[in-house]
Description:
Elements: H1 17-31, H2 35-57, H3 62-96, H4 102-109, E1 116-117, E2 123-124, E3 131-137, E4 140-146, H5 149-167, E5 172-177, H6 189-194, H7 202-215
Parallel strand pairs: 4-5
Antiparallel strand pairs: 1-3, 2-3, 3-4
Helix pairs in contact: 1-3, 2-3
Amino acid sequence: MARSKxxxxxxxxxxxxxxxxxQVFQMTxxxxxxxVLFMILGFLIPVALGLVLALLLTPDxxxxxxxxIIAGVLGGVLAMLIILGRRAEKAAYSxxxxxxxxxxxxxxxxxxxxxxxxxxxxxxxxxxxDAVYRAVGRGGVVLISEGPRTRTARMVDEERxxxxxxxxxxxxxxxxxxxxADAVPLHKLARRLTKIKASLTKAEVLAVNNRLxxxxxxxxxxxxxxxxxxRPQRGN
Length: 236
């Protein structure tokens, strides 16, 4: 009897870098009709700048002009990639903006260096699914409300008192993400954190975060958050 060969399932091959970029572009174009225009302008402006500089600085050297043009092309490609990344991030967040757990998704995946946060809220209203999240960084403690201010104000005040008891004189900043006119858009949340003036050292950030975590109660996951994707706190 012939021995049958073991057939091991092949691991699906991940798409290459160019294919990934194309997929990101296609996704972004569905939600951002201006992406093509911005990318074309992002490419042409550095190329035109390189050409102008070449003609002004070295009009008699063909080799140097070529180098300036190549530098402009490379700068244009870089500008296109930066624009694609920014617009793709905005398009991705626009799809989940307003949903319960959207702030947690930002804290899980987009926190900048020096900040520690969790996708799990520190306070939740079980009826309305409004929530308050917490991030700790060089700028102190930031409480991020998700939902209308009129419904989240009480939870924010309670968390502010908790931070004052545990963290002492640590600076507390409140950011609102929701339907209010002056609320911070979801795609700008991570960058908004980096604009807060530094008041803690790296060691103090870890110490304050550990003290707050030690008294934080486990809360039910807001509807809209996938519990299978919950991760521990992320720090850089």
